[in-house]
Design brief:
- With 135 residues, this protein is mostly helical.
- It is built from five helices and no strands.
- Helix 3 (58-83) crosses helix 5.
- The radius of gyration is 25 Å and the shape is elongated.
Length: 135
């Protein structure tokens, strides 16, 4: 810790101990964080209006839809592996994964940053994940 960090820590500790922060407005309530620091200033009003009216950016809505489809696929795969012919289920799973991966690929092309991309699905990994654990 350098001298500046140490001085800041001491001032904060001193203020806490002397009770200077005990009666701040909003104490004990969650922060109301409205502004997104990553929004371009010229788009702030538009984004605010969208949020206030229950809308989101199209790529965020699509991500939610993709995540819901993947969860539904995984549930159906697990159910199918327990109750049907495994080879038939794998054929069905392969076609579903191909369809989902095409959608994921199109989605990934449209997101503004790489960190928002969705990882494509792998048949072997999904089958292994869906198989019940045996003792």
């Amino acid at each position: 810790m350098n001298i500046f960090e140490w001085v800041a820590e001491e001032k904060i500790r001193s203020a806490i101990e002397s009770g200077q922060w005990d009666n701040l407005p909003g104490k004990g309530k969650p922060l109301q964080w409205q502004d997104n620091p990553f929004e371009p200033p010229e788009w702030r009003m538009a984004f605010s209006l969208l949020r206030q009216n229950g809308f989101s950016l199209p790529w965020l809505e699509e991500r939610k839809e993709i995540e819901a489809e993947v969860q539904q696929f995984r549930a159906q795969l697990a159910l199918g592996l327990r109750s049907a012919n495994v080879m038939d289920v794998k054929d069905w799973a392969k076609s579903q994964i191909d369809r989902l991966n095409r959608r994921i690929f199109r989605y990934n092309l449209g997101v503004p940053l790489d960190r928002f991309q969705v990882t494509s699905l792998n048949l072997e990994q999904e089958v292994e994940r869906a198989q019940p654990v045996s003792d």
